[in-house]
Specification:
single chain, alpha/beta, six-stranded mixed sheet, 6 strands, globular
Amino acid sequence: MSDLRITEAFLYMDYLCFRALCCKGPPPARPEYDLVCIGLTGSGKTSLLSKLCSESPENVVSTTGFSIKAVPFQNAILNVKELGGADNIRKYWSRYYQGSQGVIFVLDSASSEDDLEAARNELHSALQHPQLCTLPFLILANHQDKPAARSVQEIKKYFELEPLARGKRWILHPCSLDDMDALKDSFSQLINLLEEKDHDAVRM
């Protein structure tokens, strides 16, 4: 190889190194997903979302209508529309489902039998709703730090999730405000399901 060719090769390598070190440009934009978050009043929806957004839990007030939070993660931003869980609000939930790409359902694993049954009915309704039935679901069994909390296996059996949600993309995880690492891991798995659904749509 001639001296000129060698010099050109070294110059090109220097150029590539310079581009890699100094000209990276802005990082690629994180994908954004629009989610709906539902669950009965007292299940802890607002507290969990506020903690994920690094907001102080001391000023948390239960959502009476709906609120929207942008929850940032390293590989995605989740625009979460939280709907109030009071009796007089739940009948209007379906009006806010349109445009959702995934569902977060929060339940109080330490609640009374009556509230747990109401939560089961609402989850069954959401899983079968035509605007939600094909979407990924993250089901959070909250308040696992309470003595009366039911285990994930008890929740799965009581809610009849295996037969009802067969063939759907869903995750059931225990959580509490005391274990943010586990909560973030639950959301990371949800993001994986959302990405898989995106890839499936592209292949189609």
